[in-house]
């Protein structure tokens, strides 16, 4: 069933939400809205899959999306989790190859879709858009390089400790957007290893596990010493 929508309210709120369009004036924003439509996805539904033709920019209006890749052995690797204001599918705008990752809704999600060809024309007209996209891609590259470094040089304990400290809120709580299985994939270990190490951290008094998704950090210094 086609759930695309040209609803003006959705287009406007979506475009204004995206940091890469913050520098544009009202006329420029209107031009972006004119090449945008909205689609909704149920929890667990695929937004796009590797191998599909891209040439679109997807912007999350509401909800959360998991970006993954599948290795040659069939193992799923969680690349990142995106929320409102984040965008995906941008590489297909610049490289004429099929999409290389998968995007799956982690909850009921609304996505604004921008036509790639039209967007590239606007990027030439308004270089600020292109610069913002390059800035975001640079930050993602830095995160990817750091993840590769962690996977190759840091222990399992260090990778978990870093992930917990980075995900913690100001009150030292971690509410997982991912399942523990997805978190294990993202940090390069099996779910069994993650569960075992989290139990060890709790036994040491460094964290407290509350339910399936919540972790309270009790001793930040001890976790930081592992990194």
UniProtKB/TrEMBL annotation:
Signal peptide: none annotated. The keyword DNA damage does not apply. Residues 154-221 form the HTH crp-type domain. This is CRP/FNR family transcriptional regulator, anaerobic regulatory protein. Keywords: Coiled coil, DNA-binding, Transcription, Transcription regulation. One of its GO terms (cellular component) is cytosol. InterPro entries: cNMP-bd_dom, cNMP-bd_dom_sf, Env_Response_Regulators, HTH_CRP, RmlC-like_jellyroll, WH-like_DNA-bd_sf, WH_DNA-bd_sf. It comes from the Bacteria. Residues 134-161 form a coiled coil. Pfam families: cNMP_binding (PF00027), HTH_Crp_2 (PF13545). Residues 20-140 form the Cyclic nucleotide-binding domain. It comes from Caldicoprobacter faecalis. GO terms for molecular function: DNA binding; DNA-binding transcription factor activity.
């Amino acid at each position: 069933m086609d759930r695309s929508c040209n609803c003006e309210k959705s287009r406007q709120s979506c475009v204004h939400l995206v940091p890469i369009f913050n520098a544009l004036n009202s006329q420029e924003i209107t031009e972006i809205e004119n090449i945008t439509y909205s689609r909704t996805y149920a929890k667990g539904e695929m937004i796009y899959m590797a191998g599909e033709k891209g040439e679109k920019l997807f912007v999350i209006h509401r909800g959360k999306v998991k970006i993954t890749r599948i290795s040659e052995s069939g193992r799923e690797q969680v690349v990142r989790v995106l929320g409102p204001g984040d965008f995906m599918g941008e590489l297909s705008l610049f490289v004429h190859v099929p999409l290389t990752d998968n995007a799956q809704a982690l909850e009921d999600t609304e996505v604004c879709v921008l036509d790639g060809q039209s967007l590239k024309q606007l990027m030439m007209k308004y270089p600020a858009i292109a610069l913002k996209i390059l800035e975001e891609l640079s930050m993602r590259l830095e995160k990817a390089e750091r993840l590769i470094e962690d996977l190759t040089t840091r222990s399992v304990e260090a990778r978990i400790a870093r992930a917990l400290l980075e995900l913690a809120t100001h009150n030292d709580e971690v509410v997982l957007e991912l399942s523990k299985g997805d978190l294990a994939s993202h940090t390069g270990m099996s779910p069994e290893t993650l569960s075992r190490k989290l139990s060890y951290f709790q036994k040491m008094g460094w964290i407290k596990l509350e339910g399936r998704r919540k972790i309270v950090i009790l001793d930040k210094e001890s976790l930081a010493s592992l990194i």
